[in-house]
Amino acid sequence: MQHGGHRRPFATAIASALAIGLVACGGSGAGSTSAADNVAGLPITHFSSGLKPNAPTPDLVVHNVSDDESDRVATAAIADVQDYWNERLPVDFGIKFEPVTKLLSYESSGANQQNGCGDTKRNVNAFYCSRDDSVSWDRGVLLPQMLQQFGQLSVVTVLAHEFGHAVQYRLKDKAGIANNTPTIVKEQQADCFAGAYFRWVVEGKSTYFNVSTSDGLNAALSSLFLVRDSAGTSATDNQAHGTAFDRIFAFQLGFEKSPKDCAALDLNNIQPRLTERPLDRKDRNKGDLPINEQAISYLQKSLDEAFSKAGVQAPQIVDQGGTCQGGPDTPPASYCPDTNRVSIDLAALAKLGKPVDQEAEFSGEETGGHGDFAALSEVASRYALGIQKGVGAKVDNANAGLRTACLVGAWAAAINKTQGNDLRLSAGDLDEAISDLLRPDGLVAADVNGKRADAGFTRVEAMRIGYLQGSSPCSSQYP
Ligand SMILES: [Zn+2]
């Protein structure tokens, strides 16, 4: 988040970008379907996700394999992903599936191993190597770390992505892949292929894994979040994999559509929506704004301008402990319908808004905070509830939470487009909102009582829709 430092001349631009038409919404009566009830048309399910208790032992040769959990899950993941592509390559692309030539398990901190791309020593990674058509993974550091943080599905997510690269090399021009294809295109396709595979698992077609649409898919998305590029990476960097926003977009595309849609991704169609960009020269503190009274006053102004066309009394943000007298009680920020105020606990928000230590996050340690935009978007979400109440919408059901996330996305896009605004997005900000959406206690997609749609997939999608399409779908998609 950045403070522009001078008066912004584009208030009208923001206002029209956010001319929200919520008057017609909130009428969803009993029996009507809710966007919160499903994930891309599939029911919300709750069961433990991971290797099936009765999963067979895969008939695969893995070099240097051990019998630890990392290798068991990784080997089953490869076998499963191969089953998937064995089914899909002939149907979608008219080509016969060929398994990869070599599988290698290694310990980045242990004895050397070799594949066609060289030595594995100190390579904390999982990767496809086209030179010898191999998939390799580090069972010493990377996989155990991911297992510990997000469980078995994180390993499946990583390997489904890596296998996506093997698929690319099988599709070649059918996926538009040539020697000079930018890395980000290959990475977007691989995330998309992983999403397509996950849908197949969620639909119950996998021999090896169970994935629920609630916690199961949340684990897959959280793993993609964890392996996002650090804030400020350029999308043209030859190592660029994308922001969490970009990576989850591609995964969701594959989940909602098909491998053909993944293969059709190219630089022209991804560039307009990619959010990865270097830090601006003017960004101080790597784009991190301390959350203090001044930041909150910029936020109030930015929200007032953004939602001015709604034609309702603007909620006032006040530092009153983060709860409302007589409820609701969703600290560190609560929307109080009785007074039309957003009550915040500034000290708690300042803590929440501290910069993310991505290295600590990766190893599962205390990360400091979740970033300035996580804190500001929580407050913005409570403000957006006030606007919704003002236009007569219901603010106490799961659709209200999703509509709120959608409006926060629309607001984020509006301040992103505006030059010289008091607040503007800096690199990494959107990912801070995504971290809030994926956390079990985040507020961005919560209704007035703090209740949220069960599926992180749906919560992230709601913010994305607002960010990419503006506020009008917020009421039509989440009635
Ligand atoms: Zn990749």
Helical amount among residues, as a percent range?
40-55%
Number of helices: 17
The overall pLDDT, averaged over residues, is 88
Label the structural class: mainly alpha
Radius of gyration, CA atoms, in whole angstroms? 23 Å
Shape: elongated
Give the total of beta strands.
14
**Compounds present?**
zinc ion
Largest sheet, spatial ordering of strands: 5-9-8
Spans where pLDDT lies below 50 across 5 or more residues: 5-32
Main pleated sheet = 3 strands, mixed
N-end to C-end Cα span: 31 Å
Indicate the proportion of strand residues.
5-15%
Fold and architecture overview:
The structure is a single chain. This protein is mainly α. The protein folds into two domains: 2-41 and 284-477, no CATH class; 50-211 and 233-270. 44% of the residues lie in helices and 9% in strands. It contains 17 helices and 14 strands. The protein has helices at residues 11-17, 69-93, 142-150, 152-171, 183-202, 215-226, 244-256, 259-263, 267-270, 293-306, 346-352, 358-362, 372-390, 398-417, 429-438, 456-469, 472-477, and strands spanning 2-3, 38-39, 42-43, 50-51, 102-106, 114-115, 118-119, 126-129, 134-138, 209-210, 316-319, 333-336, 341-344, 423-424. The strands form six sheets. It has a three-stranded mixed sheet with strand order 5-9-8. Helix 2 (69-93) packs parallel to helix 4 (152-171) and helix 4 packs across helix 6 (215-226). The longest helix is centred in the first third of the chain and has 25 residues, at 69-93. It starts with a strand and ends with a helix. Mean pLDDT is 88; it is low at 5-32. Bound molecules: zinc ion. Residues 161, 165, 187, 190 line the site of zinc ion.
